[in-house]
Request: fold
Amino acid sequence: MASVFISHSAADKEAALRLRALLAKNEFQSLFLDSEPADGIIAGSIWERELYMKLRACRALIALSSENYVASRWCFAEVAQARALGKKVFPLNLDGSPLHPLLVDTQAIDWRNDGEGDAFGRLRRGLEQAGIARGSWDRSRSPYPGLLSFEEQDAAIFFGREQLVEDILSKLARLVKQGGPRWLTLCGPSGSGKSSVLRAGLIPRLRRDHAWIVVGAFRRGMRALESLSLAVAAEFKRVGKPRSAQQILGQLQSGSAAAYAQLASELRLATERPAATVLIVPDHSKSSYQRLLGEAPRPKNSGAQSRRLCSEACVRSPRPRTETIASSPRSAPTCSAPSRTRPCFRARVWSIL
Reply:
């Protein structure tokens, strides 16, 4: 399934191939270009039907507008179909000529120098804001995980939850800028997709943002501090500076605020992001949070001090730089307005398909 459909006239084939190569170089892998040897239309296929199938499946269309494009009735059909289906359309002006009439109401990008300068940066930002994930998808993985949740490796084929992911991102940004509660909850009925939103929707977006260091998502199953230690160790390993999970567990078990602050600082140092916010993502957190409270030293008084304990149990720096997404609102002593997942009703299923 291609996320991006590249629409072009036959006369602009070379420009389309260069664009595809540039997108692939920048880790946009889920692409469709009809003339591309590996992933284009297979010889012997009914090409018109194949094009419409790809258009229905894609999430965005890049239109290489030129005099040739405007004159092509097939290009007209592709743009018309994409707009009728509600796809995001990105016009690239190849030659400075007037845009296709169907594209005049859409902000275009001057592409006369093959994306040099800030042209490609504008396209990349537009694709990312539209929820088009960068990163390759392992074609040996099934795109239908069944009862299992989508994982980070499935980000390129995870869609339909863009608005919820944007909602979570904006709430996280407000927490960092405005302070306040250190918990953000993601709640919803069982099976409504909370884990998939976290793992395949939110975390891949945050990993591309140098303002964040993401630890998790980690599930319950073992003792919670052991799970957290493994997740922190995995993050150190991901950036090429492995640490022993047992050593990290020892720091967490000490229970001191200084130890947690030191671990967060070490994460920033390892990732070379001194100003980044450390985000801990426990999945199925009701049980995990209860276990964290059970394993960490309890303060003498409950109430206000439990908020401090909760934050320290989730790796915090001396300043409130750690926010947590949980999946149960009752597990958070203080939390901002929760984000919610809902069941995918029949009408919504058809719009996604």
In short: The chain is about 40% helix and 10% strand. The radius of gyration is 23 Å.
